[in-house]
Design a protein that fits this description.
- The chain is α+β, with helices and mostly antiparallel strands.
- 37% of the residues lie in helices and 15% in strands.
- It has helices spanning 2-14, 16-22, 25-79, 92-95, 98-114, 121-124, 134-153, 163-172, 243-253, 324-336, 393-396, and strands at residues 157-158, 180-185, 191-196, 213-220, 226-236, 264-269, 288-289, 308-312, 355-357, 362-366, 376-381, 388-391.
- It has an eight-stranded mixed sheet with strand order 1-2-3-4-5-6-8-7, sandwiched between helices. A four-stranded antiparallel sheet has the order 9-10-11-12, with no helix packed on it.
- α1 packs antiparallel against α3 (25-79).
- The radius of gyration is 24 Å and the shape is globular.
């Protein structure tokens, strides 16, 4: 995928001579600026991959010795005709055996303490004996990833220190979970109420609907009042999926958008080629749809304005190394567009020294973590409807790029009014 970014960079460089002849000096400076931004994006991704490789090397050294010991033990078992099974033994021979009980008890403690982190999920997905449980396994893996993303990437801290044990207990005991709530607080006073298996009551339905996850974001403003926004998410472990049909069913038929509340509704799915007709050539465009504009065959009356969409998410980060960024981009979009003006790349605040962008009349913010991140993003308003627009560079920007001027990545399509928009349906 990094090769794709490098190709974009090289293609841009090869067209510079033509751009010089076609544009004024100011236009050339504009495009040169964003060529440099593409280079920074490539550098950021390279640095991220290098860090991941270092972590994998460290882990590999630990696992190498463990695997050797395990192979010896497994060969011993096989010599006695002992094979593995996914079914827990229930006979009294096992239940009353003191050694077995101690080992089982220790396993439970490790399972709860580590909150499933030691489970190699992508190996589970290849086990045919677990095929009937895969949707539930995927759903609960997504639960853990969502919480980790909000806590570690976006710096929302749990108000309850036992939150991980509460989640692990619920998952392990396989309870009929309903309305499992975790409060996450940001240091700026804003907070999130995260609810797993939330019961939503819908007019005309005898029983409530239960989306997998609901994120209630309560942004604290400068006058100490709170503004509330809701993101509803559903996990879908399918072999194939139509993102528009699925999300329309959830938001309209099941009323996940809750009528006039206009909740955002997104699906999270294991299908990698989620978008058959992507809206751009960005490396994530087939894996994520952020409601940036109409997809082909979208029959909704109003522009999506990011209110609905879907992303690909999978535990096999070796095969899909950047897929977790789809979720980071989704959360970053939801928080930024609702006034949480923080770095989408690392979740930290800006340096408090915003600068005017002479080319776009916007305000440029620089991440306060200049040593490890240093990400820059621009905030300005749509020239037509004045909606705030967050421009996060070629990789992190979730808005659609202008079809009229695709080489200028700051000229994006306004998701509210469609300014700069040439309809894909026309």
């Amino acid at each position: 995928m990094l090769n794709s970014i490098k190709k974009i960079e090289l293609d841009t460089a090869s067209n510079f001579s033509q751009l010089i002849s076609n544009y004024s000096n100011k236009d050339f400076e504009f495009n040169n600026k964003y060529h440099e931004e593409n280079k920074r994006t490539t550098s950021d991704l390279n640095r991220k991959n290098e860090k991941n490789l270092e972590n994998l090397k460290s882990i590999s050294l630990v696992y190498y010795d463990l695997i050797g010991d395990l192979k010896t033990t497994i060969n011993l078992f096989k010599s006695y005709g002992i094979n593995s099974t996914t079914i827990k033994p229930t006979s009294l021979v096992y239940s009353n055996d003191e050694d077995y009980s101690k080992v089982l008890s220790l396993y439970y403690k490790i399972f709860n303490k580590e909150m499933l982190k030691s489970i190699n999920y992508h190996k589970l997905f290849n086990n045919p004996l677990l095929s009937l449980e895969l949707p539930k396994i995927y759903e609960r893996w997504v639960l853990i990833v969502l919480l980790n993303m909000l806590i570690y990437n976006f710096k929302f801290k749990p108000s309850n220190n036992d939150w991980n044990h509460m989640v692990a207990d619920a998952i392990y005991n396989n309870k009929n979970i309903k309305n499992l709530k975790i409060k996450l607080i940001h240091n700026n006073g804003s907070y999130i109420n995260f609810v797993y298996e939330k019961e939503l009551f819908v007019e005309g339905r005898e029983y409530p609907v239960r989306p997998d996850y609901v994120v209630y974001f309560n942004r604290k403003s400068s006058d100490n009042t709170y503004h509330n926004y809701t993101l509803v998410l559903d996990a879908k472990f399918y072999a194939s999926i139509n993102v528009l049909e699925t999300v329309n069913d959830l938001k309209d038929n099941k009323d996940y958008k809750q009528g006039d509340n206009d909740n955002w509704v997104y699906i999270i799915t294991s299908v990698s080629d989620l978008i058959s007709n992507p809206l751009s050539n960005r490396i994530w465009s087939k894996q994520a749809y952020y409601g940036e504009a109409f997809l082909l065959n979208d029959t909704n009356d109003q522009l999506p304005n990011h209110r609905y969409g879907g992303i690909f998410l999978h535990p096999d980060v070796i095969k899909h190394p950047l897929n977790l960024d789809n979720l980071q981009r989704l959360f970053g979009m939801f928080l930024q567009t609702h006034g949480h003006n923080y770095c989408i790349a690392c979740g930290l605040d800006h340096d408090g020294n915003p600068k005017e962008n002479e080319f776009t009349n916007g305000v440029v913010h620089t991440c306060n973590n200049k040593k490890e991140c240093g990400f820059k993003w621009t905030v300005n308003n749509c020239r037509k409807c004045h909606q705030p627009l967050y421009k996060n560079g070629f990789y992190w920007t979730y808005h659609m790029l202008s079809l009229n001027e695709p080489t200028k990545i700051d000229n994006i399509v306004c998701p509210e009014c469609g300014d700069y928009f040439t309809s894909i349906r026309d």
